[in-house]
């Protein structure tokens, strides 16, 4: 059901457009997908990588849309809003039609290479514990309380994002924690949104297939703090890019990490969780939680900073952190109380892999065995760097990770080139077999890290998504495992 509405003329004026036709037409929704066109729905023609939305104007009008937004006048009886750039205009147009939901709901936008999913889940949990009705938008799940919404992209397209915020507002959401990807920032998916809080976690190499250079990737992340209406910034100053952002950010800023206004002291981590003292300018509290790994403590600090900005007390945050459950596929221990510790994590960047291995070393003084792969049709430049990061483990099994249209053997050769000529680096194209070999290598006390896919339940190969869940596979292998030792490093094919 529409939650608000606006006229063609009002929407056009907002984005500096020119109206051709009747400006008085009432609009209740905005879409960039002609299949969702219909009465009272504004269709926005966006030029994409493979399709031009202007080619679908006729289809949208035939479906009932009384108005279209275009970059050049079209042959149509529908009213038209002509703008220079429909992509940058559709977020503000959608926000206006839906009654500017981000002015009624406190939106927390979290950006950074690693940690977005974890921080948004923590913010959702902490604010819910503090008595607020919360929403979540992100990679793993999208929901308000127990009401789920479909999840697709990390950050939905602009028209979907504003509609989603409006629907969450309609369900009573007071706070919505949203992952904001670099793609979303460069492609204006969150345009038209006011952020009560904007948070930065860290920056390391990723998505250069899209951004081209690290500088462009960094600029995309920084746009959240430059181009948007932000109430408070929460910045991880333990990251050098974060420290730089904190120096120039114009809005009130809460800094977290060593040297920041929110810190963790006396940190202790184990396979059973973490303990630390949460230190803030508003007081300090001891925290004991089920969070595993130092990087999760860092994520907890960012979430704590966000919740301080939203009005929770230090005591409420400390208590809430102690109640946090893990996030699916984020350093998720799947081995239970088994003697071999098997952990599944979404780490798929050089920095994320290093973090995961470092966290594993902090919770066990035994060997760390890592299963690592690189996705196909994505940033090729990071593949050798991923191999180099993986080589910090004691044993490495390189394997497939969503090869998509590429030859998985060639992908692995590129990853292996960064790992060096080491006898403790194995190559196994079949991911199930790779997991089997990694677990067979382990003896009691060892940590097996299965990295890259995390919460995903499919393996994308040549246009087909085949069922595959690292967590289920690992549990099956553990259940069938016999004896405390298995393979030796030369039981599989070695890196060239």
Reconstruct the topology from this structure.
Elements: E1 6-7, H1 8-14, E2 18-20, E3 26-27, E4 29-31, E5 41-44, H2 57-62, E6 67-70, E7 79-82, H3 86-97, E8 106-111, H4 116-129, E9 134-137, E10 142-144, E11 147-149, H5 158-170, E12 175-179, H6 182-186, E13 194-200, H7 208-211, H8 214-226, E14 229-236, H9 240-248, E15 253-256, E16 262-270, E17 273-280, E18 283-289, H10 294-309, H11 314-323, E19 332-333, E20 341-345, H12 350-363, E21 368-372, H13 382-390, E22 395-398, H14 408-419, E23 425-427, H15 431-441, E24 447-451, E25 458-461, E26 464-467, H16 470-480
Parallel strand pairs: 4-5, 5-6, 6-7, 8-12, 8-13, 9-12, 13-14, 14-15, 20-24, 21-22, 21-24, 22-23
Antiparallel strand pairs: 1-3, 2-7, 9-10, 10-11, 16-17, 17-18, 19-20, 25-26
Word description of this protein:
- With 496 residues, this protein is of the alpha/beta class.
- The chain has three domains: 6-86, MurE/MurF, N-terminal domain (Udp-n-acetylmuramoylalanyl-d-glutamate--2,6- Diaminopimelate Ligase, Chain: A, domain 1), CATH 3.40.1390.10; 101-323, 3-Layer(aba) Sandwich (UDP-N-acetylmuramoyl-L-alanine:D-glutamate ligase); 332-491, Protein-Tyrosine Phosphatase, Chain A.
- 33% of the residues lie in helices and 24% in strands.
- The protein has 16 helices and 26 strands.
- It has an eight-stranded mixed beta sheet, with helices on both faces.
- A hairpin with a 2-residue loop joins strand 10 (142-144) and strand 11 (147-149).
- Helix 4 (116-129) crosses helix 11, helix 12 (350-363) runs parallel beside helix 13 and helix 15 packs across helix 16.
- The longest helix is centred in the middle third of the chain and has 16 residues, at 294-309.
